[in-house]
Specification:
- This is SHSP domain-containing protein.
- It comes from Lentinus tigrinus ALCF2SS1-6.
- This protein has 96 residues and is mainly beta.
- The protein has one domain (2-95): Immunoglobulin-like, CATH 2.60.40.790.
- The chain is built from no helices and eight strands.
- The protein has strands at residues 2-5, 9-15, 25-30, 34-40, 49-55, 67-71, 74-80, 92-95.
- A four-stranded antiparallel sheet has the order 1-2-7-6, with no helix packed on it. A four-stranded antiparallel sheet has the order 3-4-5-8, with no helix packed on it.
- The mean pLDDT is 92.
């Protein structure tokens, strides 16, 4: 998963394997300005489960603005930044 940040928003992007459909991807907001992202290829036995947790600085982002788009095998997640968040630490991405 890659991160691109601007003063207005953070964009997370990941290219997912062929055969993955939108209903196989779950993006959920968690307490403490965290996002959980899970993608499962149910019909495969190997290389079928992908999971990330993204931890934002709570003062940096508006978690109500999270928007996910899945097109052409690429998942893009957009999170709007709050004004003045430029000096805060970058989000941390944990692959599980």
């Amino acid at each position: 998963m890659r991160l691109h940040s601007t003063p207005a928003q953070h964009t997370l992007a990941v290219l997912l394997p062929e055969g993955l459909a939108p209903e196989m991807v779950t993006v959920s907001a968690k307490k403490g300005a965290r996002l959980a992202v899970v993608a499962d290829l149910w019909h495969r036995e190997h290389d079928s489960h992908y999971e990330w947790e993204v931890v934002f600085s709570p003062a940096d982002v508006d978690m109500m603005s999270v928007r996910a788009v899945f097109e052409g095998g690429q998942l893009m997640i957009h999170v709007r930044r709050r004004p003045g968040g430029e000096g805060l630490p970058q989000p941390l991405i944990f692959s599980q």
